[in-house]
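User: If only I could read backbone structure tokens as easily as an amino acid sequence. Underneath my words sits a plain record pairing an amino acid chain with its backbone structure tokens. This is the protein in question:
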Amino acid sequence: MKRFAVIFFIYFSLVACLRGQENSDITVVRKNLAHNYNGKTFENTVPTDLIREGAMLSTLWRFCTKGHRHPEHAFHFTPDSLTKLPDADGLKVMWLGHASVLIEIDGKRFLTDPVFSNRTSPYDKSHILNFLWSKRFFPAPLNVAGLPNLDGVLISHDHSDHLDYQTIIELGKTGVRFFVPLKVGDILASWGISRQQITEINWWDSISIGKTHALVATPARHDSGRKPFFGKRDRTLWCSWVIAGPKHRVFFGGDTGYSPDFKKIGDVYGPFDIDFLPIGAYDRNWPYIHMTPEEAVEAHDDLKGKVLFPIHWGTFNVAIHPWDEPVKRFMNAGQTQHINYCLPSPGKLVVWPNTEIHSRWWEAED
């Protein structure tokens, strides 16, 4: 009997060692500070209505009748070239449209919310209803085949304009690791992504990437659910991300409304060299789940950011406002508040600290 006990002890010890070696460069630290699950759905840190009560019909009418929600010009962007390896102590970023950002930070590369498909459909590539969903205003400057080697893909939540089926499938074939909020890993696994490639964490949990870098999932004020009609909502978590290297630190807001969370994040993890904050898809009938450009500037101050890089605009028709209104309002607010901001064209490689780029690409003429 003792012999069998010894054999089992040795066997499980070896298995544990092998697993530790397999994921030795990633350590997840659970802080258990987020009480954001009621046993059925996830919740925001402050009360958050998805849409104003009684506003559904008026919202649908405005969505169907309001114009200037697509650009009148055809855009095509050629990405700047990338080195095989990122600089060991540098910070470079490339916006690929909407919330997709390639981030090189102190020798590692991360990609946020990659959506390279032509439409924001929540279904798979061949679904018959894909044509109903918003089409890109311009082709993605990079595709999966054109990406350099990545140290991780960061997902903020499960909405289809942030979590794209076809892009995830193609990325999964490369063996890259996905870092996602709670329960989003179940979606990736259902698409065939190996569980060994998926790391799920809660708000305020942190992930050590080797001995030099850390990722922290921080709160966002939003919602979740991929089914457009009558689907169950808030069964998966949403988040923002802190990405920290030994010399630089950035914040990725993903998709969020304004909340007191920004102040707490800034106090704990700020200041940030760059904060990527959403400025589009706002509306008076859903004021809590998306920020206005003016609120993004306020959040930038809360976060103790040095440079504000606006995202979540100018790529898909996912709101009612004119397609270029967010950037116009943002520039006005940024100049009024005298902040440093970066507005490059998609595919432009921005190299820290040379971030004073105001391209006005959206004003291109025929």
The chain has one domain: 28-363. The two ends are 83 Å apart (CA to CA). The domain at 28-363 is CATH 3.60.15.10 (Metallo-beta-lactamase; Chain A). Helices lie at 2-22, 56-65, 165-172, 184-190, 261-269, 293-302, 325-337.
